[in-house]
Design a protein that fits this description.
By secondary structure, this protein is α/β, with parallel strands linked by helices. About 30% of the residues lie in helices and about 20% in strands. Strands 13, 14, 15, 16, 17, 20, 21 and 22 form an eight-stranded antiparallel sheet that branches. The protein has a five-stranded parallel sheet with strand order 2-1-4-6-7, with helices on both faces. Helix 1 crosses helix 5. The longest helix has 24 residues. The chain starts with a strand and ends with a helix. The protein binds flavin mononucleotide (FMN) and iron/sulfur cluster (2 copies). One iron/sulfur cluster binds next to helix 7.
């Protein structure tokens, strides 16, 4: 038997997850129920890693499944993942149980993913039945964890999981054993008069605990409380004492697939969102909006440097122009805006994540303080930038020594007629212009947008070297993220914790489709197949631009045929351009 995704499911949650995972991975899933019922442990083989999907019972793997898996024979791939479905609690020590099963087989334990699903434990009085809305939400959200599992399995990557001590594992297992012995009597199960004698309950019981006598089910003593019988009866004829009488009988079938279409449609009509009216400064007052935190240095009338904190700054011209630029959005009466209008130069300083540094940024942002008031107790050091080195007689705003990186910029006032903008008159707190510019300079009575041409990027050597030579997670500077939202008391920011790499999708086109794009270029420069193979991972939409870049280089260097060697020079040239 060749299969990769194996599952046990009593009321359908785990089956739903296993099938979704199989679909994502383009693989088969196998329901273990027949094997469990018949004690069939014959070999299951897979060339790909195994994924075992199971519900969580009392924070543990169902004891009967643990026993079954211990005896099960596997062949082919040695890696094993687990997917747990739990009812909103946590999977406790199930990870350690899974690891023990795998290690005993001398296979490789690859971790688990925990998928929160509707709680199916109908026989427990204190567990309320989830509402239809909650169930539909959980089914939607389960996709995220399934996606996570699929991502790891497809790449055969280990999933990081919480470490569970042997003591925690032993205690959880002891609870599961206690629960089975004392808390799961099956004598309370009974069929009501609605029973039609179909035998479904008997056929879904993993422990063969139900017999049909005179067309009616009878429960024996070996029960895992899995809820398969009560959840799969087609006429909802099964009750557990009086505990389930008021409860809907849970089975995912009511909510998934064709059966669940009506419930889903009814609920999906109701939006899961509520609305919030955008008001002034909507990014701070009506949104949580992640942004950078920078201090912008500008020059005052007497040539001194003053600094103001900003978050509304973003790359603006990023390609296709003969220069690159940021867009800075600010209040037009701010010191920064006024200084930019007068002498156009600024430095965008990125300071490292530190609560003291952030506190100083917040202090510098107090509206209405004069540059003298702000800079009197300035907590950082200032030094000349690289523009000053190129032009010793010029006056430029200084760079903050503590910055991780700093970008020396000039306002491009030739755009949008912004050269006609004038500083505010003394005492005025907003402009009374007849005409504001659309996007550059003074754009409204209160606002300004500055297109800032990037002149020099200054960076601390370690970070620069990382960008030139290839960045790893540990190479990123710790930069804070401003969350936008502020109230009358606090300004909030997010501390840098760690960088998480996410693999880019690897989509190779064929050499013939790259060749097709290359042949459409009007040029005498030729490409070899091997050279085109080197750019087969470039998204199709970017291919013409990349190919044109190669041709341009070839023409400048008198090259008639681009082979692998030339392609490597072209790629290398792009990396070197940064240094
Ligand atoms: C006997 C039993 C014990 C359970 N114990 C837990 C638990 O400890 N924590 C939890 O989050 N969910 C628990 N649940 C809920 C199930 O793990 C969850 O609903 C699961 O998705 C059911 O999967 P299935 O529909 O594939 O059978 C328990 C359910 C049963 C029947
Ligand atoms: S009798 Fe017990 S083990 Fe069998 S299906 Fe019902 S709840 Fe599950
Ligand atoms: S599944 Fe329901 S209807 Fe069918 S035999 Fe069992 S109790 Fe009766």
């Amino acid at each position: 038997m060749f299969v990769m995704i194996l599952y046990f499911s009593a009321t359908g949650n785990t089956k739903y997850v296993a099938e979704m995972l199989a679909k994502k991975l383009g693989d088969e899933s196998l329901d273990l129920i027949k094997r469990i019922r018949s004690n069939d442990h014959s070999v299951i083989r897979s060339q790909k890693p195994f994924v075992i999907c199971t519900p969580i019972y009392v924070s543990y793997i169902p004891l009967f499944l643990e026993e079954f898996l211990r005896k099960q024979k596997f062949a082919g791939n040695r890696k094993v993942y687990f997917v747990f479905t739990s009812g909103g609690g946590h999977s406790g020590a199930a990870g350690a149980a899974a690891e023990n099963i795998v290690r005993r087989k001398k296979m490789l334990y690859m971790g688990y993913v925990d998928v929160k699903m509707p709680n199916n434990y109908m026989a427990l009085k204190f567990i309320p039945s989830p509402s239809d809305e909650k169930i539909i939400d959980m089914l939607k959200e389960s996709r995220i964890q399934v996606f996570r599992a699929a991502h790891a399995v497809a790449r055969e990557k280990r999933i990081r999981v919480r470490h569970i001590t042997q003591a925690e594992n032993a205690a959880t297992k002891a609870l599961a054993v206690f629960w089975k012995r004392f808390m799961q009597p099956s004598k309370d199960f009974h069929a009501t008069d609605k029973c039609i004698g179909c035998g479904k309950c008997a056929s879904v019981c993993p422990l063969n605990n139900i017999e049909l006598r005179d067309g009616r089910p009878v429960w024996n003593a070996s029960c895992a409380h899995c809820m398969a019988c009560i959840g799969n009866c087609p006429v909802e004829a099964i009750e557990y004492g009086s505990k389930t009488q008021e409860k809907p009988k849970y089975n995912i079938k009511k909510y998934s697939g064709k059966n669940g279409a009506a419930i889903r449609a009814a609920l999906e009509l109701k939006s899961g969102f509520t609305s919030l009216r955008p008001v002034d400064n909507f990014y701070q007052s009506s949104l949580f909006f992640p942004m950078p935190v920078v201090l912008v240095s500008t020059l005052t009338d007497d040539g001194k440097t003053t600094c103001g904190p900003y978050s509304l700054i973003a790359p603006f011209y990023v390609a296709g122009k003969d220069y690159y630029a940021f867009m800075l959005v600010c209040r037009n009466s701010s010191n920064t805006a006024q200084n930019l209008i007068k002498n156009k130069k600024c430095v965008v300083n990125f300071l490292p994540d530190d609560s003291g540094i952030f506190r100083e940024c917040v202090r510098l942002g107090w509206p209405g303080d004069t540059p003298e008031e702000k800079m009197k107790d300035f907590a950082f050091h200032l030094e000349e930038g690289h523009r000053k080195a190129d032009d010793p007689r010029g006056t430029y705003p200084k760079v903050i020594t503590e910055a991780v990186q700093a970008v020396e910029c000039t306002w491009v006032d030739t755009l949008d007629g912004a050269q006609n903008d004038i500083p505010l008159e003394d005492g005025a707190d907003h402009y009374e212009l007849e005409k504001y510019h659309d996007f550059n300079g003074i754009t409204s009575p209160y606002g300004a947008h500055f297109v800032l041409k990037i002149e020099k990027i200054l960076m601390k050597p370690g970070y620069r070297d990382a960008i030139v030579n290839g960045v790893k997670g540990a190479d990123f500077p710790p930069l804070p993220v401003d969350y936008g939202y502020r109230d009358s008391k606090n300004f909030w920011y997010h501390k840098h914790s760690k960088m998480i790499p996410e693999l880019l999708p690897q989509r190779q086109t064929t050499v013939s489709s790259v060749r097709y794009a290359a042949d459409r270029l009007q040029t005498d420069v030729r490409f070899t197949d091997e050279a085109l193979g080197k750019i087969a991972n470039v998204p199709r939409i970017f291919l013409p631009t990349v190919l044109k870049g190669c041709v341009k280089w070839a023409e400048e260097n008198n090259v008639k045929v681009i082979d692998v060697k030339e392609m490597e020079i072209i790629n290398d040239k792009r990396s070197k351009e940064k240094s």
